[in-house]
């Protein structure tokens, strides 16, 4: 990202642990999808990051626009909801059909969100799609004058 000042002696890349921490504690995430013909769609969701697996999961109605978009075009962007400390991840999402895998994500989802939404249940989540997002690239920018040109970072993931 040379246009962001990363080729200067002052530049210090953010460690992935910085991004993983934000993914773990962030409550709301923006998910951006596009239909098969390229029409964009963005809405916030709740979601869970698992750093050991390098995967993100979120739930939505099977009839939601994002679910329909992902069925025809699996590419998506997941972003934190902070516009000062910005994290944007590009990748692919697919519905989780394996029951064991779905149960793992539901357990993580409940551990994170049940303390703030006591009526959230595994049954509710099983009635919806659980989508697993596999990152390909991530970008971070800190939108503060003293850090903008010295902390912009890009990560590339290997499958």
Short summary:
By secondary structure, this protein is an alpha+beta fold. The protein has helices at residues 16-25, 65-72, 99-113, 122-126, 148-151; strands at 28-34, 40-50, 55-60, 75-80, 85-95, 129-142, 153-156. It has a single domain, classed as Roll (Pnp Oxidase, Chain A), CATH 2.30.110.
CATH architectural group:
Roll
Helical coverage, percent range: 25-40%
> What ranges have pLDDT less than 50 throughout 5 or more consecutive residues?
none
Give the mean pLDDT: 91
Pattern of helices and strands: HEEEHEEHHEHE
| Total of DSSP H or I helical runs spanning 4+ residues | 5
- Quote the CATH topology: Pnp Oxidase, Chain A
Distance between the termini: 22 Å
Main beta-sheet strand count, sense and barrel state: 6 strands, antiparallel, barrel
Arrangement of strands in the largest sheet: 1-2-3-6-5-4
Q: Name the overall outline.
A: globular
Structure class: alpha+beta
Number of domains: 1
The gyration radius over C-alpha positions equals: 16 Å
- Name of the CATH first level: Mainly Beta
List the helices and strands and how they pair.
Layout lengths: L15 H10 L2 E7 L5 E11 L4 E6 L4 H8 L2 E6 L4 E11 L3 H15 L8 H5 L2 E14 L5 H4 L1 E4 L3
């Amino acid at each position: 990202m040379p246009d962001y000042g990363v080729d200067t002696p002052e530049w210090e890349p953010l460690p992935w642990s910085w991004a993983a921490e934000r993914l773990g504690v962030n409550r709301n995430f923006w998910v951006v999808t596009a239909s098969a013909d390229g029409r964009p769609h963005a809405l916030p969701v709740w979601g869970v990051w698992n750093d050991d697996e390098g995967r993100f999961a979120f739930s939505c109605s099977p009839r939601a626009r994002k679910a329909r978009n992902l069925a025809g075009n699996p590419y998506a962007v997941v972003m934190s909801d902070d516009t000062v400390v910005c994290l944007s991840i590009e990748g692919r999402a697919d519905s989780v059909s394996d029951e064991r895998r779905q149960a793992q994500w539901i357990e993580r989802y409940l551990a994170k969100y049940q303390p703030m939404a006591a009526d959230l249940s595994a049954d509710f989540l099983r009635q919806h799609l659980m989508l697993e997002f596999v990152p390909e690239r991530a970008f971070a920018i800190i939108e503060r004058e003293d850090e903008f040109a010295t902390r912009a970072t890009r990560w590339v993931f290997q499958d």
